[in-house]
Amino acid sequence: MRKEKYTKPREDDNQKNEKENDFHIPQQCCPERYPSPKLPSPTSCLPQETLEKVIEKIRAANELLLDLALGDERLPDETYQKVFDGLIGLRVEITSLSGEHCEGKVSLSGYDFVVLRNEETVFIYPYSEIDVVKPFGRFADPYDDPELREIDSCFRRELTFNFGDVVSSSPELIHLFFRMRLNIYLLVFEEKNIQIQMEGQTIKGQLKKVDKESISLEVDGQLTTISIDKIKLFILNN
């Protein structure tokens, strides 16, 4: 009887078979496979537009939680900036270092201060005077942020070629690009009546002048200069 000559499989063939059959199952044991459409399963039962809004809210909430968790590693002003950015439009209660409470909707998160609005009253809190922030609601009433996409061509040209002069002349643009500091924001209220609270003292008067480190109030016909660092709260009535 003639013997069949045995041919040793080439190493390349073995590697090819192993690559095609990772579980070493004999090919004759595998049933014939029929092509089937590969359709990805939906990630959610929500409509796409609603899903995108939910994802955005989750992202914002996660960023807020991360900022709170990293609060000890950040400067106090930076921490409050991030916190109040996530609370814009929400009603909150602020407890000051002296234990006083103030309630209103967050309308502006500045560089070193926050603005709350409660009906016709505006409260301006320096971050350095805040002890506790307590949100009241889950849903925010959005404030219209200034946008530069729809500006006219003349203003666009001025902003492009005279950026410093144009931005420095507008508190809104300063805040949009750099965040306003408290002394810059107070310029908006010059010649308006304002109430300030200091340690054990409340003063009412007309805001006459704002400098980098102080303000000047006209009280009973006399001009009084007060250091901004000593002021715990600014209150205005629209």
Describe this structure in words.
- With 238 residues, this protein is an alpha+beta fold.
- The protein has three domains: 48-135, SH3 type barrels, CATH 2.30.30.100; 144-188, no CATH class; 190-238, SH3 type barrels (Roll).
- Helices cover 29% and strands 28% of the residues.
- It has helices at 11-20, 48-69, 76-85, 153-161, 163-168, 171-178, 182-185, and strands spanning 91-96, 101-109, 113-118, 121-126, 130-135, 193-198, 201-210, 214-219, 222-227, 233-237.
- The chain has a ten-stranded antiparallel beta sheet.
- A hairpin with a 2-residue loop joins strand 6 and strand 7 (201-210).
- The longest helix is centred in the first third of the chain and has 22 residues, at 48-69.
- The radius of gyration is 32 Å and the shape is elongated.
- The termini are far apart.
